[in-house]
Each structure stands twice: as C-alpha cells, then as structure tokens.
Amino acid sequence: MMKPYGPYYPGSYHVGKGHAFALAMEGANVVADVFAQYHDPREAEEHLSQAFSKYTKEAETVALQLAANTGWTYEGIDATPAPLKDNSIGGAIESFIGGPFGSSGTLTASGIITRAVQTARLFGGLPVARMGVRLPHRRKRL
User: Fold this and answer.
1) pLDDT single digits (tens) 81-127
2) Fewest C-beta atoms under 10 Å: which of 11, 66, 88, 119?
C-alpha cells in the first residue's frame, strides 16, 4: 500500500488535519505546444519556463481565492507537467527531436522540461513540488 503523502493521484492520501488542498498541473499539452514551435533547445527552455510560469500563476490565483473564500489551507502546487490521455510528453519529445523516444536528443528534451519547471516563477511563495518528468510507457494503438 502507498504511504501517506505520496504525490500521485489516485494513490495519494494524507493523514493530516484536513481542510487543506494542493494543486497539480497536467501540462503535457503545454510542452507539446512549445516543442512544436521552438526547436532550438535554449529558446524552447525559455519559452517553456514562461509558459509554466503563466499557467501556474493563473492556477495559484484561483487556489488563493478558493482558500480565502472557504477557509481551507492552500499547501502549494506540483508544477511538473503530467500527461493525460492523448496529451503525451513522450509525443512532445518526439516532435522536438524529430525521431522516436529514446533516440538522440531525448535526454536533452527531458532536461529542457525539468529545467523549465525548476525555473518557472511562481508567486504564491508556497512549497512547489517539482518531481521531474513523468513518462508513462507508451501503448500502441490497435
């Protein structure tokens, strides 16, 4: 069984005081959009960091308003982009490197994503979980 405070839904849970919440981003589509437009590693990293900053600030604005209106405690945000169904980080990396995942450039693209998350500017001043790139195994469509 997963221990309390594990970071990944649906297995995550806590045994704390309650009336607290945190956010997690599903931003594989953000990575895909930036990687489709920018193929120079430095440009891609800069624009990806800016995009993460923009979207996490927007999410935190809502979270802080929610906390103020409900009395619940906002505990922070996991800004790491997670894949969701057809929004694949693996696919975004493949579009950036121009080849299959695992070929030359895969680690460069993964590093770009990781550094962009690490340098994203958040305004809440609360803890930011930065787990790294989550890459699920890819399933072939039949």
Assistant:
1) 888 778 889 999 999 999 999 999 999 999 999 999 888 876 555 44
2) 11
Which three-class secondary structure state does DSSP give residue 2?
A: coil
Look-up of token digits 């221990």: 3
pLDDT range class, residue 9, cuts 50, 70, 90: low
Residue 128 backbone phi and psi in degrees, to 5: -120, 120
CB atoms within 10 A of CB 31: 29
Q: Provide the token pair at 93.
A: 């990396």
What predicted TM-score, i.e. pTM, was given to this entire model? 0.77
The contacts of residue 128 (CB under 8 Å, 6+ apart) are 76, 77, 78, 79, 122
Spatial contact of 88 and 140, defined as CB atoms under 8 Å apart: no
